Amino acid sequence: MEESLTADGAAADEAPKRVKQFGEGPTALLSFNFSTRFQVILLCMFATGTSLMARSLPFTTTVGDAGMAVQYGWDEADVGNFYAAFGWGYAISQIPGSMAAQQWGHKNVWLIAIAGAGVCNMFVPWAAEIGLWPAMACRFVFGLFQGSLFPVQTGIKAAWLHENERSTLNAIIGLCWAFFQAIQSIITPYFMTGIGWQWAFVFYSLLIFIWSYYWNKYGVGIVPGQVERCTKEEAAYLQGREIPEVSTATVCHHAAV
To answer: 188: burial class by Cβ within 10 Å (0-12, 13-18, 19+)?
Structure first.
C-alpha cells in the first residue's frame, strides 16, 4: 500500500502542471515584454500615420490665398482632377499590391510601397511648377504606391497580433490615423504662411523616409518563427499554441533518465 502511494506521489510530482497559454493573465494585453510584437505595433502606427499625412496633404495645401490653387490659377475642376489622380492610382494597385506581397514578401513590398510614395510626394511641388498634368501624374503614381498600404499591413497584423488582442490593438493603430491627420492639419498652415507650402511636402516625405529606415532595420515578414529576434515563446503565443508549464520534479526526472 505504501509503495503504491509512493509511486502515485512520484507520478503526481512528475506530471506537468496545468497547460496554459503563454502570456496568459489579466495584464497580458498591456504587457509588452514581447519586444518584436511591440516594435511591429509601433511601426504599423507610424507607417499608416505618416502615409495618411502625406495622402491628405493636398486637401490643406490647395486652399487659401497661399495655396496651390491660387498660385497656379487652378479652378474647381482642376483641383478636383488633382485630388482624383490619387484615387485612380490607389484603386488600381490594391489587388496587385497584395499579390506582390505574397510573391516577394510583406516586409520588402511594404518598404518599397511606402518609401516610393514618399519620393512621389516630395516631387509634387516641382511637378506643379511645370503644370497641372505633371502634378496629377505625381499624385497618380503616389496612389499606385499607397494602394498596397492596407492590404500588406493586414497580413502583417494578422501574423503579429494575437487573436485575443487584435480588436483592441487594431483600434489603437486606427486611432493613430485620425491623430496624425489632425496633426497634419495643424502643422501645414504654418508652412503655407511661412516658408511655403512646398516645404510641407518635403517635410512629410522626410518623415516617411525616417520610417523607411527603421522598417528596413526592424521590419518583419508574416512568419514570426523565422524572425531571429523573435523568441520561441513569443512565436508560439502568436500562433496560438499552448506551452506546458513543467514542474521541477519533471525536469529532474528526465535529467536522471
So the answer is: buried
- Length of the chain equals 257
Q: Can you tell me which residue has the cell 492596407?
A: 150
Whether the full predicted model's pTM is greater than 0.70, yes or no, is: yes
Q: Which CATH number fits domain 34-256: 1.20.1250.20, 3.40.50.1460, 1.10.260.40, 3.40.50.2300?
A: 1.20.1250.20
- The three grid cell numbers given for residue 157, joined into one nine-digit string: 497584423
Under the banding of pLDDT at 50, 70 and 90, the label for residue 119 is very high
What is the Cα 231 distance to its own chain's centre?
A: 21
Q: Max Cα separation, the chain?
A: 101
Q: How many CA atoms lie less than 13 Å away from 78 in the CB half-sphere?
A: 16
Q: How confident is the model at residue 182 (pLDDT cuts 50, 70, 90)?
A: confident
| 19, β-bridge pairs | 244
Rounded Cα–Cα distance for residues 148 and 100 (Å): 9
DSSP result, 90-115: HHHTHHHHHHHHHHH-HHHHHHHHHH
